[in-house]
Amino acid sequence: MPLYCGIVGLPNVGKSTLFNALTNAKALAANYPFATKEPNIGVITVPDNRLNALAEIVKPQKVVPTTVEIVDIAGLIKGASKGEGLGNQFLANIREVDAIAHVVRCFDNDNVIHVDGSVDPVRDKEIIDTELILKDLETIEKRLEKLKKQAKSGDATDKKNVGICETIIKELEQGKPARTIPREDDTKALFKELMLLTDKPILYVCNVDENSVSTGNAHTARFLESVQDEDAEIILISAAIEEEIAQLEEYEEKMEFVKEMGLEEPGVNRVIVASYRLLKLFTYFTAGEKEVRAWTIKQGAKAPEAAGVIHTDFEKGFIRAEVIGYNDFIQYGSEAACKEAGKLSVEGKEYIVKDGDVIHFRFNV
Which end of the chain has the smaller Cβ count within 10 Å, N or C? Predict the structure, then answer.
């Protein structure tokens, strides 16, 4: 089952423009609220220089990068938790994603309408937070009512969960997203079961003007101060410029444009990699004459599960994994040289795959 990162924000902040730049999928990006009504889903190639380095050594017939899926969700306005605008649809869609890339507008342009009449990224973020918190309160209050009835039987777990829910409600009522609430190991199961919207990991994308991509501006300074306690990653990007870069055909053209902007790489690359991290994903590689390929796994995946990403038969008939660390492969220059140097390890079913592992699976079906 794929993991999704959802792009959210108020209408007209640049969500669909960013989505187009990320996927080149040509989603409707228009200068009026609710241009996006149905969620657009795109498959994005994950940039990874390690894949290119392995290909330089192996010289395969083809090189296949890994991907991540991203969703452009309808814009939200005040009252969404009560069904205003496309609120019900927005909240249903956001419930389905595993992480959030929250786009906030940090540029001034009189030709681009702001749904609230002025540019204020701090206010915009608070609108989104408030609507999600209100929906979470509705969710948890229903659950609390049920738990209180169950707790009357004297069940210790139900009684404890009542207390946990009451604590969460107090924090939410103070405007704190669920993701910021401390939790012990024995409370994590309840948090997971509640599926609170504000418990999803988040990345903030500040959509700025062309001149503010590197240094930021007054809007981004205020926004950074407002989220300093959230321990969230913040990326500055000009979605309009990124869409222009994405439309260029040749890689050399893209990089020339990027350098002219004073950047080292397209901003979308940073958004993609950050989304990948946000979803707690790792990459491992297979490297042979036919292809060098990157594969996506969840952090903490064991060898058979990683093998199953290639084919279910690999997982069912798993025998062992022959593993070389990425740095060792680059240093020694081939699988044979790594083996001779003692850098190839043979691992069993309990081996937890590391980010960057180069693996050859042995299986029997």
Answer: N
